[in-house]
Design a protein that fits this description.
- By secondary structure, the protein is an alpha+beta fold.
- It folds into two domains: about 100 residues, no CATH class; about 90 residues, Alpha-Beta Plaits.
- It is about 45% helix and about 15% strand.
- It has a four-stranded antiparallel beta sheet.
- Helix 1 packs parallel to helix 3, helix 1 packs parallel to helix 5 and helix 2 runs antiparallel to helix 3.
Length: about 200
């Protein structure tokens, strides 16, 4: 039974670790400490291996739990009910939690408030589009975090961050805000602007 508990613990730990790089930006937003968002971005390259490890460990735990038990010829009473932590129900809860953690990057956007941007008429000559190259973004949660911070600024028309391209394309009213303020907002998330160019 101790081995089953260790397997369950290992499965949970690997699932949490696999999603840590994507969970941190949301936790940072909730806690109001945006700067720590990129702390675990170094884990991202190992995510596929951690997902595989989680599946193997939990699969083996389920195999152990469901395989037929050998009957021992004994006159002793063994109708003792297993502890909750050793039950199939607990293993099921752990499995569902692990799946929720592994899928976190795909639904993390729900944790970022969606503000309806005011439609402001801007003189076409005042509109400027700049691409900010950003290091440290590893998933959709990172994109949402950057967009959320940039859209708080006055004068932003549109912000589109992409972790795959490692950038954010920001359309803004240059009479109300400048690139330096936008760069500060992006850097406050914990991800760093490495370059910028006007489009």
């Amino acid at each position: 039974m101790k081995n089953e508990n260790k397997l369950i613990g290992a499965g949970l730990l690997s699932a949490l670790t696999a999603s840590l790089c994507c969970i941190t930006p949301v936790l940072a937003l909730i806690a109001g400490t945006s700067g720590v968002a990129s702390t675990f971005s170094w884990i991202e390259p190992f995510r596929p291996y951690l997902i595989g490890l989680t599946i193997l460990v939990l699969g083996f735990a389920w195999f152990q739990k469901l395989k037929p038990q050998k009957e021992i010829d004994c006159d002793c009473e063994t109708d003792e009910k297993p502890k909750f932590i050793q039950s199939k129900k607990f293993l099921g809860i752990v499995t569902v939690f692990a799946i929720a953690m592994l899928a976190f990057p795909y639904y993390s956007g729900i944790f970022y408030s969606k503000k309806d941007k005011e439609i402001v008429l801007v003189e076409k000559s005042d509109v400027k589009t700049t691409e900010f190259k950003i290091s440290g973004m590893t998933c959709a949660s990172c994109e949402e975090h950057v967009n959320h911070e940039v859209n708080k600024l006055n004068g932003i028309v549109n912000s589109k961050a992409s972790y795959e391209n490692g950038n954010a394309i920001v359309v803004f009213d240059k009479t109300k805000i400048d690139e330096t303020e936008i760069e500060k907002a992006i850097n406050s998330t914990g991800y760093k602007v490495t370059d910028k160019k006007e489009n």
